[in-house]
Amino acid sequence: HFPCQKIKYCLKNYIIFAEELKSYGVQEIFVLCTRGELSKCRVPNLLAAYQDHGFIVHHHPIPDGEAPDFAQCSVILNELRSSLEYNRKTLIHCYGGLGRSCLIAACLLLQLFDSVSPQQALDSLRDLRGPGAIQTIKQYNYLHDFREILATHMLTEGLIARSISR
After folding, report:
1. How much is the pLDDT for 14?
2. Which among 26, 83, 94, 95 could disulfide-bond with 90, CB atoms 3.0 to 4.6 Å apart, if both were Cys?
3. What is the domain range of residue 25?
4. How many structural domains is the chain composed of?
């Protein structure tokens, strides 16, 4: 079971939190909070503190309640897949641990497993994080449109690659 169900409470004691994450074997941390949020939460040096504790830190700020644009999501998912390929224990967190982080985790499930539907991904995350996982209509719609957006992106990338190779 994860050490801290509400990341926002852990951030207040982020040194203790970092040590606890180490005890769980976490090696990489994906932080989805904006720098403004980190400052507002009085942890402006959180990213540096994580690095000082030996974590590989990926900072991909997404405003609270929002969804990333597809280019940003693609970068995050590629980095997450790399973490998984190297069997690194990885934490994804935002401020509340329900909206942005659950959205990224759900998109990763959809990308990794063709047999998983958006609703199944959402249900899995709600089983783990509670009924508040995926907090806004924008995030919910993004999750349900993810595969269509991914297919369009792949098609566009394929067309661009072919036109460059000519």
Report:
1. 77
2. 83
3. 7-165
4. 1
Give a yes or no: residue 94 inside a domain: yes
The SS3 call for residue 25 is coil
Alpha-helical (H) ranges within 27-136 are 35-40, 46-52, 70-85, 100-112, 118-129
How far apart (Å, rounded) are the C-alpha atoms in residues 24 and 19? Answer: 9
Tokens in use for 71?
A: 């280019």
In a domain, 2, yes or no: no
Q: What is the mean pLDDT of the chain?
A: 89
Residue 112 lies in a domain: yes
pLDDT at 51: 96
For residue 91, give the 3-state DSSP assignment: strand
Cα–Cα distance measured from residue 63 to residue 86, given in angstroms and rounded to the nearest whole number: 29
* Coil vs helix vs strand at 143: helix
β-pair type (90-93, 28-31): parallel
Quick one: pLDDT at residue 5?
A: 47
What is the reported pLDDT for 142?
98
- Report residue 58: phi and psi, to 5°: -120, 120
Q: Which residues pair with 29 in a beta bridge?
A: 57, 91
In a domain, 1, yes or no: no
- Give the pLDDT of residue 1: 37
> For the chain, which residues score pLDDT lower than 70?
1-12, 158-166
Which residues are known catalytic residues? 94
